[in-house]
Description:
The structure holds two protein chains of two kinds. Chain A is of the alpha/beta class.
Amino acid sequence: MSAPRPGVIVTVPEVAVIDEIKDEIEDVRTFYFSFENAEVGRRFRIRSGQFVMCTVFGAGEFAVSLPFSPEADRPHLSVRQVGKVTRALHELRAGDKIGLRGPFGNGFPFAELKGRNIVYAAGGIGIIPLRSSIVHVLQHREDLGRIILLYGARSSKDHMYRYMIDEWRKIPGFEVHVAVDRAEPGWPGEVGFVHTLIAKAAVPVKDTTAFVCGPPVMFNAVIQELLANGLKDEAIISTLERHMKCGIGKCQHCAIGRTLVCTDGPVYTYKQIKTLGEQI
Amino acid sequence: MAAALAEDHDLYGPVIDPPGAEPRFDRVEDPAAVRLEAAIPYNPPKSVIFPQAERIMSYTYDRAARRAEIVRDDHVRPKALVGLRACDLTGLLCLDRFFLGQEFVDEVYRDHRKKLFVVANSCVRPFPQCFCVCTDSGPAAREGYDVNLTEAGDDYLFEAGSVKGEVLARRLGLKDAGPGAAALKARIGEAAVARFDAEATQNKAWISRVMNRVTTGFVSNDIWEYIGDQCFECGACSFVCPTCSCFNIEDVAARSGQTDRLRSWDSCSYEGYTRMAGDHNPRQPVEDRRNKRFFCKLSYSQSRKYLRPGCVGCGRCVRVCPGDIGMSNVVTYIRREIAKEGAE
């Protein structure tokens, strides 16, 4: 194990200002932030796939993946209100303050992607943690093979980052496939679950790395389809979520198999996930 | 010695209070109340540096003024922990390696630990519940103490294990025990080990063989299910364990607009331990959770963090478990399975 990188906020949160809030889909908002102390902001260097512990003052702290890219992107969190603390976060308005610790976790591989085809398969808000890698990878298109996004949600109202996806469609060489589970009037795109997009997009097998994130049902269907197509366990990458309290490998709430999601994860290959012996 | 330490430390040690009560580790106001000869206390000493509940920081947020102030609670008084038996000392070393090692240092633990003075008390005979010889953590203290005491007839051998310990020895004006002291300590240790068969009658635990099994995953589901059936989900094993260190963190509103961030002991046996917001719980059945505890104590992957097995053989979980799944029993269930296979 390596020592934490300088600039990581370990124990006491640093105060950040919510500069802007964007409504995404039902119950999901994006919170653009900047650190109160500019020096802290400069030292806050992330890798895509990492997460932070976010304090909502008076309510508590929760773990949340970072959706922004390490390069040329505006810091933000995209959060669904689902429990006590995230509901309290949704009560906040631009100008309010939050506390942040991190960034924590291993992050997505990037260096070893060189020359490979990259497939992102996301379901619902599972695109949030993948967004960071997508934006990062798109800045290095020349070093990579095909780049494909397979994204699905229950209905078109449940598509996260719609404005972003519209921009992505314009990027030459970025193959974007967006689907809804069931046909709906006026929906011009694909219909069907995410795993059905794998065939429609003619996802390559050779030299391909797939990033998969979404609800368990979607996750399992996509994995089965990718494996059936011949992708190797170690070429499939995902990011896990667990109940977390400390983020630094001490409270043990996120223990899964012989690993801790906070320090050994949250990014795992499917080969690793299979050996963990627990539910996703 | 306790009196000298109490001059500049808060003193903790085994006490029997009221007379006839079970020995316990507690804060000691009167140094004379420390009972070195007491049987192993029912509670482990971990609470001295890893309190059952403590405030790690507090903050205020004035929403109207948009002002947030966070104050870290790092005011920790120097403490002396006197009369740690070898199992508990080993437990302390496990906590040190876990909290201070790995990728991140736990700053809250570190603040307590760096001001702690440790006086070990090597056991000269086992208690019925003990199995430290099975877990390689006793009966004599070997490392990690500032001072180690070994009862030798009417005297105690005093060994300094650190500069702080040597300073204390000089301050107390102790006389040199002479060249035979090391051999004497070794003889006392061997005699203590020799008594285990006859006196530590409640427990035996063939840990090493079972560790191999647990690590490689070759423990049948029947065993885990039996263990799950026996578990009352009370968490007592975690709380009396010298090496269990899982904790919860909660923000609790204190007085007038201030919120305290509290950290408190937690147990992997609780159903809510892994439950996420939105009620998804990846670890539902109780045997999943029990399996977790024994995996934590008995697998090589966790041992890498402690640099030894996670069980120190104190026997407390055996005494406290309302079911039948104290550590030595679980080890026995798994070992029986191995023996049965061998016979087939």
